[in-house]
Design a protein that fits this description.
Helix content is 23%, strand content 20%. By secondary structure, it is an alpha+beta fold. The protein is globular and about 60 Å long.
């Protein structure tokens, strides 16, 4: 029977309706191997540093000047930024109660996760993923004055990637988006209700006890199929020891993130599905929070229900997804 479930972290409702996968044309998309990256046209390839804006940061184990080869992770401004420093105030509206606008102030950066011409973090070694994640943290710290810093990885065209070479985008915002604000409020309410409890820590402890949606555990993190997963095979990676901000010192569970992507690859016949991945960290001023990483494969389309109501319909139960991914370990 279909169920309405409430996401413990956001309070948003979703529908779990596994039987709908049996309807004609209603199953999962079958991921296809992406075409190889054309090394000559790849602006993120080593040796093509002149094809990007001047770098902001890089890891160069052997040293060397900026904008030259020899790097393992490289950060540049986005060539087509969604956010910019400064900005011109829009013309005042004649109906300010109806139409409001402001400059899109902030920063928009690209982290080239490795010089390897590959399309997924899963194609890197666990050690390379760890180095890339350390750079994510360094750039988040560089924007500590922002109201919120959003770090996201889009893989494949279906996941919104305009360039195939594995990269991460960072958005430093001067406001807290509503979805992050919802989580902050629920963390705060849980701490008040439990006299200091951490919402995600308590959720993880219960998931480990029940084991129905538990996928994997290591020394640094816990990998779950969320109770109210919005899309099939969605995953949540949480730290073993709660910490409000991903960018603060401490483990980042890089090996477990790499393992999660490998499990998805094995589940889908050796192909990593198109996906979106993001880091949820505490917004500025949050007293109660815990960072986590969300991994969302793009295996079903968003249709009128999702786009018109914000109510997601998931045709693979989180319990089934967890069992499948445990078996693919």
């Amino acid at each position: 029977m279909p169920e309405i479930r409430v996401d413990p972290l956001t309070g948003l409702r979703g529908i779990i309706a596994q039987h709908r996968a049996q309807r004609p044309g209603g199953g999962l998309a079958i991921p296809q191997p992406p075409p190889p990256i054309d090394a000559d046209s790849d602006p993120f390839a080593a040796g093509h540093e002149h094809r990007t804006p001047p770098e902001l940061f890089a890891v160069r184990p052997g040293g060397g000047p900026p904008d030259t080869p020899g790097w393992t992770v490289r950060v540049v401004p986005n060539l087509y930024p969604a956010l910019e420093a400064g900005g011109v105030e829009p013309e005042p509206s004649h109906a300010p109660d109806l139409f409001t606008a402001a400059p899109a102030r902030g920063a928009h950066e690209v982290v080239v996760n490795a010089p390897d011409p590959v399309g997924s973090l899963a194609d890197l070694t666990a050690g390379q993923v760890a180095v890339a994640m350390d750079v994510w943290r360094a750039r988040m710290r560089a924007h500590a004055d922002a109201a919120y810093v959003h770090v996201t990885v889009n893989e494949c065209a279906a996941g919104g990637a305009s360039l195939p070479h594995t990269h991460t985008q960072l958005f430093a915002l001067d406001f807290v988006p509503s979805q992050i604000a919802r989580e902050r409020e629920r963390f705060t309410a849980h701490a008040t209700r439990t006299m200091g409890g951490n919402l995600l820590q308590d959720l993880v402890q219960e998931e480990v006890r029940q084991r129905d949606r538990l996928v994997a555990v290591d020394d640094e993190g816990v990998l779950l199929s969320p109770y109210a997963a919005a899309l099939p095979y969605q995953l949540l990676l949480a730290p073993r020891v709660p910490r409000a901000r991903f960018e603060d010192d401490g483990p980042v569970a890089a090996a477990l993130l790499h393992d999660a992507l490998q499990r998805l690859r094995r589940r889908f016949g050796g192909v990593v599905p198109p996906l979106n991945l993001w880091v949820r960290t505490a917004p500025r001023g949050a007293e109660h929070f815990c960072w986590h990483i969300d991994i969302v494969p793009r295996l079903t389309p968003l249709a009128g229900l999702e786009l018109g109501t914000g109510l997601h319909l998931n045709i693979v139960s989180p319990e089934q997804a967890a069992a499948d991914l445990r078996d693919s370990g």
